[in-house]
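for the recovery benchmark. tokens below, seq after
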């Protein structure tokens, strides 16, 4: 990325500069902006999504305490980076480092030589000191008299420390000042520097040989267009919609589900609701007159679930409870080739038998027969195969004649179980739950560390009609947010920032990867929250903004959010270094074998990736490094494996490809997001 140095400006002038199209990152020279008081500094570093570096040079300063104070004001206001010279006294360095750690600010320790370039031993010593002093990023800038000076500085990239550790890509900014070092300001990006420095214009150069922002933009991007999207509205979450549609169909009375947007899976749920006997009026508000209370078995001999795995697994327990005792389940497209892992054992625990209708394999597939009625009681079941059949049990067991206790060991996709509980509560169903885990889980409530779940279900409950708004879909939003983080910016509206949706975790992934993320919730103002509640709108919805920022490799566990895997893998391809994403074992039974589909996709694109145990390991490079080193992703003909989430990931990846990416089946995106292609292309 290109970091533009700003000096001798007041607050209004700086904000105006940050709105320029060629400013993607900026260094604020607090030592050279004397008009900025503390209030201005707070406003500046808290009032923009553009990544900012707070710099206040102490060299030659008569008052280092004042420099430290101004840096701390910037850090506490939200500076993404703070730059402290290596010459700073040790106590000052420790205080700035502590403040940066406390506020999540990336610490840059910098070494400058404005007279020349020292020998190799001295340069390596300076880099080692910066590392010892706790820097996240090391900056080395020396004056070059000739090409040999430049060569010594550039050889720091990839250097090996005395302890054997190699300088990682994305953690060093090393270049030379002066005309002899001019090209090194661009070459450093080729070597893996997270950013380089440029001037607003020739008159504003902070050092000799510095490029202007316009010159650097032309050299790096060569007119390539990024991804810039504002005011994007996401479809309703099909995870919420499908659960709510079935609950409304089972309820007594008429329910109103606002904010509905159709997709193939949700339309399949509406068809199932009608098959149950519910009356459904479609539109932005779904009006569903339910069939409850259910006094006698529903006379349904067969049920078609479209291509939806959730709907199938959810309805198996529901019809085992409410149906005639034997029901044929059918489906279509990818669903008929996806085994229902673990479903047979779980249903057997409650007295229900699943039988293949068209195969002889031990594993159960659609079409299948569901024989028997649910027998309430206690059962210990494994959650290793996912949460969907468990969600179905949670929907069915409240209608049983007696109480049940369900203990889930090794639970996966835990957030989806809590989505089910949230929807059930809206329809008057109450289920108690307890979670267990190790000591760290008890302290952090990190769902990935949960080892068991207990659900206590009272029988004899009846669904009651409900009116509420369906949440916007975080799974869909993730694709636009990642596109903005890599290629420009994105602003997505109407998302619940306190959602139970598992894919809300994309926010954590982006932050972990170094993206600039901000959000504005409606509930920040009491009056807005009250008005939203009165209007029947979720008061926690708001806008989520992501702006391109220097990215870094990351590690993340997606066992509880497997739908994020394809787009997270694309993100990792543009994060310099080795990223590790856990949860590959959760991908085999999706619309495609996603672990294989993702590795095949990345390998075809020229991205180094492999699977180690339950982790996918991806070696990435920054966008600027790919642009300057001819490492853009390879275009050509790609298969989506008829998987809607692979289509979305491929479309985002195409923004960083050297030639067009042609996808064999884009239409399958209608399964969850029919308008995705239009919205993505018309941004």
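predicted aa per position
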């Amino acid at each position: 990325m290109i970091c533009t140095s700003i000096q001798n400006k007041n607050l209004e002038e700086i904000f105006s500069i940050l709105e320029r199209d060629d400013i993607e990152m900026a260094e604020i020279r607090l030592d050279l902006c004397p008009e900025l008081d503390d209030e201005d500094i707070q406003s500046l570093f808290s009032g923009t999504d553009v990544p900012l570096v707070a710099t206040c040079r102490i060299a030659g300063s008569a008052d280092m305490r004042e420099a430290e104070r101004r840096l701390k004001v910037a850090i506490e206001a939200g500076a993404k980076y703070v730059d402290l010279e290596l010459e700073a006294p040790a106590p000052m360095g420790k205080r700035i480092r502590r403040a940066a750690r406390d506020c999540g600010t990336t610490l840059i320790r910098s070494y400058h030589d404005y007279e020349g370039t020292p020998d190799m031993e001295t340069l390596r010593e300076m880099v080692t000191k910066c590392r010892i002093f706790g820097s996240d990023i090391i900056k080395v800038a020396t004056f070059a008299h000739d090409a040999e000076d430049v060569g010594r500085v550039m050889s720091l990239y990839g250097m090996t420390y005395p302890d054997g550790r190699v300088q990682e890509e994305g953690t060093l900014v090393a270049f030379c000042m002066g005309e002899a070092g001019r090209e090194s300001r661009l070459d450093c990006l080729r070597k893996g520097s997270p950013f380089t420095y440029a001037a607003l214009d020739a008159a504003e150069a902070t050092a000799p040989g510095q490029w202007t922002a316009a010159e650097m933009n032309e050299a790096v991007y060569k007119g390539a267009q990024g991804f810039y999207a504002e005011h994007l509205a996401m479809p309703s979450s099909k995870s919420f919609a499908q659960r709510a549609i079935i609950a409304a169909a089972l309820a007594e009375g008429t329910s109103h589900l606002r904010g509905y947007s159709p997709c193939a899976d949700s339309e399949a749920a509406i068809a199932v609701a009608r098959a149950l006997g519910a009356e459904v009026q479609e539109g932005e508000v779904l009006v569903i007159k339910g069939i409850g209370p259910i006094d006698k078995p529903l006379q349904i001999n067969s049920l078609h679930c479209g291509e939806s795995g959730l709907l199938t697994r959810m309805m198996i327990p529901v019809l085992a409870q409410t149906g005639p005792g034997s029901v044929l389940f059918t489906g279509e497209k990818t669903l008929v080739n996806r085994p229902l892992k673990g479903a047979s054992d779980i249903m057997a625990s409650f007295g229900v038998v699943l039988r293949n209708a068209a195969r002889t394999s031990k594993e159960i597939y659609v079409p299948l027969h569901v024989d028997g009625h649910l027998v309430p009681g206690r059962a210990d079941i494994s959650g290793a195969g996912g949460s969907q059949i468990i969600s179905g049990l949670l929907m069915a067991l409240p209608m049983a004649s007696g109480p049940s206790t369900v203990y889930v060991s090794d639970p996966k996709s835990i957030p989806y179980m809590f989505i089910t509980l949230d929807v059930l509560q809206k329809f008057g169903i109450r289920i108690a739950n307890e979670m267990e885990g190790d000591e760290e889980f008890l302290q952090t409530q990190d769902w990935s560390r949960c080892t068991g779940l207990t659900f206590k279900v009272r029988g004899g409950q009846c669904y009651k009609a409900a009116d509420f708004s369906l949440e916007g879909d975080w799974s869909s939003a993730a694709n636009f947010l990642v596109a903005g983080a890599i290629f420009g910016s994105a602003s997505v509206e109407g998302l619940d920032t306190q959602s139970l949706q598992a894919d809300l975790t994309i926010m954590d992934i982006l932050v972990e990867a170094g993206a600039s993320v901000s959000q504005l919730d409606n509930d920040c103002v009491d009056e807005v929250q009250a008005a939203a509640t009165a209007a029947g709108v979720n008061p926690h919805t708001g806008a989520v903004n992501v702006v391109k920022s220097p990215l870094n490799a990351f590690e993340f566990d997606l066992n509880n959010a497997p739908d994020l895997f394809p787009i997270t893998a694309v993100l990792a391809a543009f994060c310099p270094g080795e990223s590790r994403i856990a949860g590959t074992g959760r991908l085999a039974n999706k619309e495609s074998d996603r672990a294989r589909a993702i590795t095949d996709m990345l390998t075809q694109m020229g991205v180094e990736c492999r699977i180690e145990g339950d982790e996918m390991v991806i070696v990435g490079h920054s966008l600027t490094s790919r642009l300057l080193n001819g490492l853009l992703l390879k275009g050509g003909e790609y298969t989506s494996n008829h998987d809607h989430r692979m289509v979305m990931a491929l479309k985002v990846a195409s923004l960083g490809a050297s030639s067009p990416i042609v996808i064999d089946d884009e239409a399958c995106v209608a399964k969850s997001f029919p308008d995705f292609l239009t919205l993505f292309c018309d941004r």
